[in-house]
Specification:
single chain, mainly alpha, about 75% helix, rod-shaped
Length: about 280
């Protein structure tokens, strides 16, 4: 009697690769920026050339802003790090979102794809996605490839095909959005945190000013002006950083919203075209 050898189990289909989110890693970038901020405060703002008699423990030279900023105290390097963080991640988001838009105008791309779909030229639309590239090109191409697959499918009915097509668009969009939104949370956080840190520096400066008055029982003009200067320097740095962070966050979120809207518009056109032709 022959023993039957068990047939090998069918190989599992490879899991789809998760799209890399790309962008800078905050865990690496933030400590580096903090070190840069501290070194800049110590050796640039605190350089003796900005102070009387070349000594940074004395008053800054008249009209020398570097020396004035140095006198803002230990809060200054923290605020300067916040400013550098907003600057670096804004530049990084600018290039990342720019690449996501692709190589050509998004409006022209949307018009071409909609026109080709109206003529049922799916292959030409896929070639247009290859030329456009970027996140919008990737999402639309994924949807069009699913479109071609479903157009020859004989097992699913029309409603099931439309659901499958919609799901493909949503999944492709979900994979692309994290890359676009990465690090925006840091910019949004600094828009509010910078103001609070500046407020802390302001309060410490005012405490120093009034403490100098209370120590002698009479106004000490030098100590009072030093404390007020420290408070105002921190206030200016914090408000400036918060303003830039708020503007950049609003700008980037608006660009992402426009990109998402265009993806949704093309996705809807693909589904309507499929419903009309199949």
């Amino acid at each position: 009697m022959k023993t039957q050898t068990p047939s090998p189990a069918p190989a599992k289909a490879p899991a789809p690769k998760k799209k890399s989110s790309g962008g800078l890693n905050p865990a690496f970038v933030l400590p580096v920026l903090l070190i840069i901020g501290i070194l800049t405060y110590m050796f640039v703002f605190g350089d003796g050339s900005h102070f009387q008699e070349g000594d940074n423990t004395k008053e800054p030279l008249p009209g020398d802003y570097f020396g004035t900023v140095y006198k803002g105290g230990f809060i200054v390097p923290i605020l300067f790090t916040c400013f550098l963080t907003v600057l670096v991640f804004s530049i990084e988001r600018f290039f990342t979102i720019g690449r996501a838009n692709g190589s050509g105008s998004i409006d022209d791309f949307v018009r071409k794809i909609k026109g080709q779909l109206d003529r049922n030229e799916v292959a030409a639309a896929i070639q247009e996605c290859d030329r456009q590239k970027g996140s919008i090109g990737n999402v639309v191409k994924t949807a069009l490839l699913k479109y071609q697959q479903l157009s020859t499918d004989t097992e699913l009915n029309k409603e099931q095909k439309l659901v499958a097509l919609q799901k493909e668009v949503e999944e492709a969009t979900t994979l692309e959005l994290p890359m676009l939104e990465k690090n925006l949370t840091i910019i949004a956080t600094l828009a509010s945190v910078s103001t609070l840190i500046a407020l802390l520096g302001t309060v410490l400066g005012m405490i120093r000013a009034f403490a100098a008055m209370g120590a002698t029982g009479q106004p000490d003009t030098a100590a009072l002006s030093t404390g007020i200067s420290e408070a105002l320097v921190n206030t200016a740095l914090g408000i400036g950083t918060a303003a830039i962070a708020t503007i950049m966050y609003s700008y980037f979120t608006s660009r992402i919203d426009v990109l998402t809207y265009n993806i949704d518009e093309i996705g809807l056109s693909i589904q309507q075209n499929f419903a009309a032709h199949y």
